[in-house]
Design a protein that fits this description.
It is built from seven helices and five strands. The chain is α/β, with parallel strands linked by helices. The protein has a single domain (about 1-125), classed as 5'-nuclease (Rossmann fold, 3-Layer(aba) Sandwich). Strands 3-2-1-4-5 form a five-stranded parallel sheet, sandwiched between helices. The chain starts with a strand and ends with a strand.
Length: about 130
């Protein structure tokens, strides 16, 4: 089973019914992929309840943010110019739990690979 960590852009792509994003969602519903979203990413994404948002949340593993991952994300922010907290959290989480991050913005997460070289970054259109 593929273990993938999603960023906010990947969740938005699902909401916008982007073809590849919906393929990931369908794979999660069938138990063929484990889609994980760190709790802080839900905060950045959630703007109120809809049928589609409920479906997405039912298909993803919303995971707590361990202190070790939060520390790694903070260290990445210190080292990678222009890195944001949410992007660093996604990358630190992916590094700790499976090594693949799915994003709506390749450039932002690719920059963080300097700190998290083991993480493979795929755009939601490539996943």
């Amino acid at each position: 089973m593929r273990r993938l960590t999603l960023d906010t852009g990947a969740l938005i792509a699902m909401e916008r019914r982007k073809r590849r994003a919906l393929i990931l969602l369908d794979a999660a519903e069938r138990g063929e992929a484990l889609l994980t979203v760190p709790v802080p990413i839900v905060t950045e994404w959630w703007r109120g309840r809809t049928v589609l948002r409920d479906r997405i949340l039912a298909c993803v593993d919303v995971a707590p943010l361990p202190v070790s991952v939060a520390r790694a994300a903070g260290e990445a922010i210190a080292e990678v110019r222009g890195a944001t907290a949410m992007d660093a959290i996604v990358m630190a989480f992916a590094a700790a739990r499976g090594g693949i991050a799915i994003t709506g913005d390749l450039d932002d997460l690719q920059r963080l690979r300097a700190f998290f070289p083991s993480v493979r970054v795929l755009g939601v259109d490539e996943a």
